[in-house]
């Protein structure tokens, strides 16, 4: 069986991501996110379809659970010319990868001298991890960079956390720190009984009726991966891409038209 994605596919980058470095690239900035739903297997299809749009820069943000449903991440980067970055929890917060190494670290100094900077590196921090006031903070930089966030699929777990304001991973921190003048779209995907649970309706109602910056691309009915039949399946990935193309007025390369 082919190996699935793992956090070590994309080590913490050696330079920090800064939105301002990309502000003048003249591209639409699409922040695509996936969560721990089987429907994450559609992400390579979504990326392949978006590769036909040269005027966009894509960054992919993945929860830890979503990795189970993806091929090695370097293969996604190789296959998608306009996929300019993949962002994982440990790129912001080393404990997400190795709690032991984080616990071993001294408390973060606000203005470390060169000696303590070396100490941080030796326990897993490097130059893209926040070490001092003024360093870029990944979830804030991603929010600044993005013109739109598309979460496809959105798991029941992440839906609940978003609506309740949780921010204990990179995706949730971006959503929590979002500039509500910019759009977020999400495509929930879950087992039929999860979708039909009354708590789901309450959470979806918040997104649809109270949070104007959110668009919910509602699930469809089909036989799900678990064998149950009914609503809860992620909207067809082609419909999701078409929604994005229309929303962002994306244009294909002339040779693809
Ligand atoms: C094989 C498998 C398939 C799953 N499919 C779904 C799904 O389609 N939707 C969902 O909401 N949760 C699904 N789950 C459960 C989530 O992965 C789990 O709730 C996880 O904590 C979600 O984490 P995240 O929201 O941080 O990605 C699945 C779990 C497994 C093991």
TrEMBL record:
One of its GO terms (cellular component) is phosphopantothenoylcysteine decarboxylase complex. It comes from the Eukaryota. SUPFAM superfamilies: Homo-oligomeric flavin-containing Cys decarboxylases, HFCD. Keywords: Coenzyme A biosynthesis. Residues 29-246 form the Flavoprotein domain. Pfam families: Flavoprotein. GO terms for molecular function: FMN binding; phosphopantothenoylcysteine decarboxylase activity. GO terms for biological process: coenzyme A biosynthetic process. Belongs to the HFCD (homooligomeric flavin containing Cys decarboxylase) superfamily. This is Flavoprotein domain-containing protein. It comes from Drechslerella dactyloides. The lineage of its organism: Eukaryota, Fungi, Dikarya, Ascomycota, Pezizomycotina.
């Amino acid at each position: 069986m082919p190996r699935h994605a793992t956090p070590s596919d994309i080590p913490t980058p050696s330079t920090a991501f800064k939105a301002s470095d990309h502000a003048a690239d003249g591209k639409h900035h699409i922040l695509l996110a996936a969560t721990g739903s089987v429907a994450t297997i559609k992400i390579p299809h979504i990326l392949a379809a978006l590769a036909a749009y040269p005027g966009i820069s894509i960054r992919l943000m993945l929860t830890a659970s979503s990795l189970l449903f993806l091929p090695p991440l370097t293969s996604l980067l190789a296959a998608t010319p306009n996929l300019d970055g993949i962002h994982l929890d440990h790129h912001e917060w080393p404990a997400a990868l190795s709690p032991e190494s984080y616990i071993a670290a001294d408390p973060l100094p606000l203005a470390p001298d060169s000696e303590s900077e070396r100490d941080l590196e030796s326990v897993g921090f490097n130059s893209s991890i926040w070490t001092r006031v003024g360093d870029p903070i990944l979830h804030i930089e991603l929010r600044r960079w993005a013109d739109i966030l598309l979460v496809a699929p959105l798991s029941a777990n992440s839906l609940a956390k978003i609506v309740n304001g949780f921010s204990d991973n990179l995706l949730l921190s971006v959503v929590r720190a979002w500039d509500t003048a910019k759009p977020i779209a999400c495509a929930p995907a879950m087992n039929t009984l999860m979708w039909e649970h009354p708590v789901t309706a309450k959470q979806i109602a918040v997104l649809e009726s109270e949070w104007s910056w959110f668009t919910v691309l509602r699930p469809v009915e089909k036989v799900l991966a678990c064998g149950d039949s009914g609503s809860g399946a992620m909207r067809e990935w082609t419909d999701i891409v078409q929604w994005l193309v229309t929303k962002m007025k994306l244009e294909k390369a002339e040779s693809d038209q």
